[in-house]
Amino acid sequence: MDHGYAEVYPDSRVLDFNRRFDYIIPPNLAGRIKTGSIVAIPLKNRIETGYVCRIKKYSYVKDASLKFIAYIFGDIEVFDISRLKLIHWMCANYIQPFGKIAELFLPPVEKTKLMNILKNPEKYLAYCSILSIDKLLLEDFEKKSVSKKFFKQKLIIDFIKSC
Q1: N or C: which end of the chain has fewer CB within 10 A?
Q2: What CA–CA distance (Å, rounded) separates 160 from 89?
Q3: Rg (CA), the chain
């Protein structure tokens, strides 16, 4: 078969289930699914939300055991590379599942409303402005004495500045 593959983290809050799975990108979604997209994936006998963390041409898993991505929630790359790096870093340092940390970078709305927002890029961009990482604000925060009291927040700031 001539198609691409996506590494997807299921939106799971269970640490034991915190791993990415390979899925086949169906022809009708080729070119629309990108790193940072939110997709619907078959997982066991149900459809779950998943976060695409990488697109690749090959998979080491045999096609016969892979499943197709069901659909995509809008054509928006929700997580850019710097946010994905930060999410991975936070997962490792705070020992939390990917889905739980990724949720912190999404607009603060119910999941069903979020999926509707993702279908409308203008609405999403309005919410997204709240979530932008402004390095000047980080420097201002770092200068204040608050950063000296909260060591974990300082670690996050240092990581963001290194990206």
Answers
A1: N
A2: 10
A3: 17
* CB-based contacts of 152, cutoff 8 Å, min separation 6: 94
Model confidence pLDDT, tens digit, residues 20-78:
899 999 999 998 999 999 999 998 888 989 999 999 999 998 888 899 999 998 888 88
| Average pLDDT for the chain | 79
Contact call for residues 11 and 19 (beta carbons, < 8 A): no
Can you read off the two tokens belonging to residue 142? 């770092």
**Looking at residue 150, what DSSP letter applies?**
-
Instruction: Name which of 102, 101, 127 is nearest 114 in CA terms.
Output: 127
Contact 42/63 with Cβ under 8 angstroms?
no
Closest CA to 105 of 123, 80, 142: 80
Tally of CB atoms within 10 A around 46: 7
User: How far, in Å, CA of 141 to CA of 147, rounded?
Assistant: 7
d(CA 40, CA 71): 5
Q: Residue 32 in 3-state DSSP?
A: coil
The model's pLDDT over 130-150, given as tens digits with 9 standing for 90+, comes to 445 555 555 665 565 454 556
What is the percent of the chain where pLDDT is above 90?
Answer: 29
